Give the backbone structure.
Amino acid sequence: MTNFIAICHGKSEVILAKWITKETRVHIDVDSRNGGNNSVMINSLLEFMKENGYYDSSRLKKRYPNIEYRNRKGFKDLRIFIIMDVDNDERSVYEYLSKEMFKDCPLKDYIIPIINRRDLDDVFRSIGFEIDRNNKPESYRELLNDVDIDYLLELLRGCEATNLDVMIEEVLKHDPGHQSK
């Protein structure tokens, strides 16, 4: 069984990751700073990972005891999606996407960086959805309630502002309802 973890930039990304779980019936452990109420920024990501057990195998094993670990081979079937907004930190994006930022992290091979340029709101606007900036959490919940995951995936595949389609495609591979599609 593949284990999925999503480390989320903020509340909107938490809502999105939980929606993907609901839509696919594939469990994703969703983590963020204070439930997404406080943002994890790219330039503070390594600090968040170290504080929360995502920087070394032994702490990750303690935090997620159900993830199978094979001594010399490491974790079996683990994906750690890190969903970040660029916001105003374009300088760190290359190091993040190339995983150069994680060069000293023993979990580097499990990490799949997901980026939203400038932010998730801009990504959704670019594919034709409106987000109410004054009530973002509710706006995302309503929007996602009314959209099909396959339709959203198709829109995201054509969007140069994100690689969120990579995460959705990977999770859909493990959804029994999508395996025959």
User: Anything to note?
Assistant: Residues 11-24 form the longest helix (14 residues).
